[in-house]
Design a protein that fits this description.
single chain, 286 residues, alpha/beta, globular
Length: 286
């Protein structure tokens, strides 16, 4: 559940100290925490204060304002306004990569080896796309090019989803995370002004659909009979009550032998009667 810019040496996406031209009061910080919790279920702790100053401060400046309070008043004045999207995007963390927590993909391949029929998987924290594309590569390699594989990737961060749909990544990053054989099979190398970049081949990208979804608000436009749900390092940003509600909603979407993959620091054994631990941070229906 996806940056402080130096005034003298800006680095896109980096969290580094910045000269404090704005004042973030305790009241401002408390309002920001309340607003993001209400809108996206994200729980911001005190140690996130510098991150909040940086990311929301950037929006304050871009709006031509000089006080956090004025920016927050604008948000509250227009509860359906377009600025809410930028506010949520700014406070969403997108830490991802291809084949992150590799043991999950080994288990995924073993679970589906020899299967027949369609395979449906939901990546519930798709971020910039590396996770759902890793799922797609694993399943195509396991089941073959002709297999009926469809993956839904959802996220609340629209900026991240735009990058996921573009399916373009730095070649250096991909070479560190994906084997040479799979790069050749599943990626196209950029040339000219695209040198140094690679793009997921259309044949693979076409198996993945991306949609915006707020996990803690409204209905989920997702049908049941899913073979697997990946919701890794997402629920750690929610409180226990929100986590329990989400697990309650995941359960009826999975097939009887379906798998729920969660993050390395997440443990829900005592939180839900619907799931039992099957392996390292992998659950199945109880």
């Amino acid at each position: 559940m996806t940056a402080i810019l130096s005034a003298t040496a800006p680095q896109l996406g980096a969290d580094v100290p910045v000269e404090r031209d704005l004042i973030l009061t305790d009241t401002d910080f408390a309002r920001i925490r309340d607003l993001i919790a209400q809108r996206a279920g994200i729980v911001l702790t005190e140690h996130k204060r510098d991150m909040v100053y940086s990311r929301i401060g950037r929006r304050v400046r871009q709006r031509g304002l000089t006080h956090f309070a004025d920016y927050l008043a604008e948000l509250e004045r227009y509860p359906d306004g377009p600025e809410w999207e930028s506010f949520v995007n700014a406070l969403t963390t997108n830490l991802t990569g291809f084949f992150r927590e590799a043991h999950h993909f080994h288990l995924l391949a073993e679970h589906f080896r020899g299967r027949r029929g369609p395979v449906r998987v939901w990546s519930a924290g798709a971020s910039t796309g590396e996770e759902p594309y890793s799922i797609a590569m694993t399943l195509v390699e396991t089941l073959g090019d002709s297999a009926d594989i469809r993956i839904l990737g959802t996220d609340i961060d629209t900026d991240a989803l735009a990058r996921a749909r573009a399916a373009v990544y730095p070649e250096k990053q991909v070479r560190m995370q994906v084997s040479s054989a799979w790069i050749q099979r599943f990626f196209l190398k950029g040339t000219g002004d695209r040198a140094g970049l690679v793009r997921v081949r259309p044949q693979l990208a076409g198996r993945v659909r991306f949609e915006k979804l707020n996990l803690v608000q409204g209905s989920w436009p997702i049908k049941g009979s899913l073979d697997a749900i990946f919701c890794r390092n997402v629920m750690i940003y929610f409180d226990k009550a929100a986590q329990a509600r989400m697990l309650e909603r995941f359960a009826p979407l999975l097939k009887p032998d379906g798998l729920l993959f969660v993050g390395h620091s997440e443990n829900f054994t005592q939180l839900s009667k619907h799931f039992r631990l099957r392996g390292q941070t992998v659950y199945t229906l109880a």
